Amino acid sequence: MLWSLLTTARGRVSRFVARHKTFIIASSVSSVCLLAGAYYCHLRFWQSANELTQKWQMEMFRRQQMRFFLKQTCTESLQTVKQFLPQIKKRLYEKFALENVVRKLRDPELRNDKKRRQLLWEEAKNLAFARFFSAILILSLWQLLVFAQLSTIGQDTFINDIENAELQQEKKRTNRGKTHHRFLSEGIQYFLGDGISKITDFVQSQLAKNAFLQSWQVHRMANVKQEEFTHVVHAMSESIQFHRKESVDDPEKLSMWREFLMLDTINRDPTENEGDFFYRLSSLLQNEYFSQALEKTVQYICTHNITEMQSAIYVDDECEPPLAKLIPQVQAQTARLIALYEGDDAMSQEHSQQIMELDTFQAFYETAFYPKEPVAA
């Protein structure tokens, strides 16, 4: 019985195959073609994927190289910032010769000259605050300038000496190094000369117009409450800070801040070897990233130092020192600020790191290094 069923089933299958032989063959061929097509599509996909992966890996490797090179550039920038601090400090202390006024106040011959002493105390007050806020602006702008210049040089060096090293002749490399040196030297010389003079003149003019400071007469301020100190010092701080939103409606104000760092390059001969670098720097200072970094960096350093100074003065709630006692505190805070930039201790390193990690500051100097991608991923 079972054999009969199997025989019958085999016969039906044979007849079915005979009737549909062409269809079955065609279907088999189609299946093979589809499988072959799928295989080659799959192969092409993996080839393309491998090519993309290789390109991506090369790009990631290049990014890592640039990251490393940028990190080295940051290290060089911090060293350059410190290297010229003695000259900056000398200019600042010569401009605001507070110590000379203090010596006069200690002169026994002036002990009974009340009017003269009042004038000297007012001069000491103005010099102390002018030195303090000038130090904040000078050090903030100095760090921005150095990072911008060295990032511009670093990016050029990376492209020409690292990526295309085999294409470069030693003579060309040497000439480029000389160009880098001239570019950096000219920028530093301008800042240490005209740049600092313009900054200190600006601070003096702003504080001279500050009604809060001018109403603070030393001989009348026997007690200065913490709230009043905070209010007046923050009012002075606001008057010397850069406000990005205001500069949108006042291009001359932004131009003034740029001129603290460099002269307009319109009259510079573009055929000069270092001329291209100054044009890059000029373009960078016209970038929105510069405005953001300038605003946030100055704001951060102002806030940090005012808070630190306030904590040193007002050690308890009952403390209400006379204004004459606050002047040495302002003087001391300026010295502490400069020491943070000069030193190599843990506090100095932390201070530098905090500024470098400001998003706007980082975006600014990376714009010089990544000209097509202002904000690094």
TrEMBL record:
Origin: domain of life: Eukaryota
Signal peptide bounds: none
Keywords associated with the record: Membrane, Transmembrane, Transmembrane helix
GO molecular function: protein-macromolecule adaptor activity
GO cellular component, one term: peroxisomal membrane
Gene Ontology BP terms: protein import into peroxisome membrane
Transmembrane segments: 21-40, 128-148
Keyword Hydrolase: no
Keyword Methyltransferase annotated: no
Protein name: Uncharacterized protein AlNc14C110G6367
